[in-house]
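REQUEST ID: PR-0412
SUBMITTED BY: lab tech R.K.
PRIORITY: routine
TASK: structure prediction, single protein chain
INPUT:
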Amino acid sequence: MQDFAAAKSEAADYWHFQPGREECSRRHLASLHEADVTLESLIPEKDFNTAGRGSAEVKNLLKRLGVDPEILRRVAVAAYEAEINVAAHSKGGIMTSSIYSDLIHIVFRDKGPGIADIAQAMVPGFSTADDMVRELGFGAGLGLPNIQKNVDALHIHSAAGASTLLEFLIHFDTNHGQ
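STATUS: complete
OUTPUT:
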């Protein structure tokens, strides 16, 4: 019980907003109204055959809804990278995609073991991947930086020995941000 309390007390939040997106992103996160469509996808631990299915399902739905191809690419890259991170680095988790008329909000929750130093994990090339993950061609330390590059808002909440929450927003209009 003491270890959990210590890990919980060291929990950290990381926030990043693309230029011009902070106000509208914070407004959305504060309101959290009901989504038009919500999809959930389980992400099993170390199962690289199914990791990526959730992001593919979201991309296909957005394509059918007529979302701009550049936005589709950004959603697919960010969601896939996050899914692979959950499969590679955690004990499994869940991806929840909430689609609104103007944006997508995707949340990943895993079952631990958490991120000891989020700022260090954001450095391109830094990785804690084990040998098996690296042998499969993953674990180059580019997942979190690629997610940040492709989203309008990114939030990570984690601590060593605890679960991780990673969420991001991508707005469907192309007038701001990237």
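NOTES: The chain has a mean pLDDT of 87.
REVIEWED BY: pending
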